[in-house]
Design a protein that fits this description.
single chain, 264 residues, alpha/beta, Nitrilase/N-carbamoyl-D-aminoacid amidohydrolase, 6-stranded mixed β-sheet, 6 helices
């Protein structure tokens, strides 16, 4: 199957403009799976909870999911996108999976980073995996990369591809995701953004770019630059992620000893 990352700099607060850019990309791109950055429709650096709430949407009934679903139906592809979700009065930093038949699933970011704790509720849904026909995909968001439990939870549920929308500012993630792919023998797609944001004389956040697709042995199938704004694609074989053998005598999952692990 063909997988694609769109690395770009969303314009803060310009939801319609950002969605139009995404819709145009979908129209112009032939792919099976497109992964977009975290908070790709709104930008990242909010100044207040009220500002977050003004840009939040219900899922699946909101504008973003409706427009993505229409674009996916037209092109016959699946999209993973980061957005602000409003549910029962709570705000979540979420990723949605949308396909030709509409909304498929939602993941709400569990491991909140920095000031995100001021605006969002921590995710209250377990890590989920969905079958999109050509592959089984699992969703994680940005700072989840530093918690090996996130990727392992998805892999144990059968995920063949980790879809990872991000707004990375720390330099470690691209290399850390090599380990996440290697230790689980899964593909991973990190879609980061570029550019910088600053609000109300506060700190300037510079996003590191370096979106990438990794293979099941941790090999870098491609890694973008820190400033490149473009869509990049690669062909992968998701079936490779079903083989968990490191050696003939060692299977990553069969050799696990959860009876002796102490995880609380």
């Amino acid at each position: 199957m063909k997988v694609t990352v769109f690395q770009f700099a969303p314009v803060f607060g310009a939801k319609n403009r950002n969605l139009q850019r995404i819709e145009q990309l979908i129209e112009d791109t032939a792919t099976d799976l497109l992964v977009l950055p975290e908070l790709c429709t709104t930008g990242y650096l909010f100044a207040s909870a009220d500002e977050v709430r003004s840009m939040a949407e219900p899922v699946p009934g909101g504008e973003t999911v409706r427009r993505l679903a229409a674009a996916c139906q037209w092109k016959g592809l699946h999209v993973v996108a980061g957005m602000v979700e409003l549910s029962d009065g709570a705000l979540y930093n979420s990723a949605v999976l949308v396909g030709p038949d509409g909304w498929i699933g939602t993941y709400r970011k569990i491991h909140l980073f920095w000031r995100e704790k001021n605006w969002y509720s921590p995710g209250n849904l377990p890590y989920g995996v969905w079958d999109i026909g050509k592959a089984k995909v699992g969703l994680m968001v940005c700072f989840d990369w530093i918690y090996p439990e996130a990727a392992r939870s998805l892999a144990l549920q059968g995920a063949e591809i980790l879809c990872h929308p991000a707004n990375l500012v720390l330099p470690h993630c691209p290399d850390a995701m090599i380990t996440r792919s290697l230790e689980n023998r899964v593909f991973s797609i990190t879609a980061n953004r570029t550019g910088s944001e600053s609000r109300d004389k506060g700190p300037v956040l510079k996003f590191i770019g370096k979106s990438q697709v990794l293979g099941v042995k941790g090999e870098v199938l491609f890694r973008m630059s820190d400033s490149e704004e473009d869509a990049r694609s690669v062909e992968i074989d998701p079936l490779a992620a079903r083989n968990k053998k490191m050696l003939d005598s060692n299977d990553l999952f069969a050799d696990r000893r959860p009876d002796l692990y102490r995880i609380q």
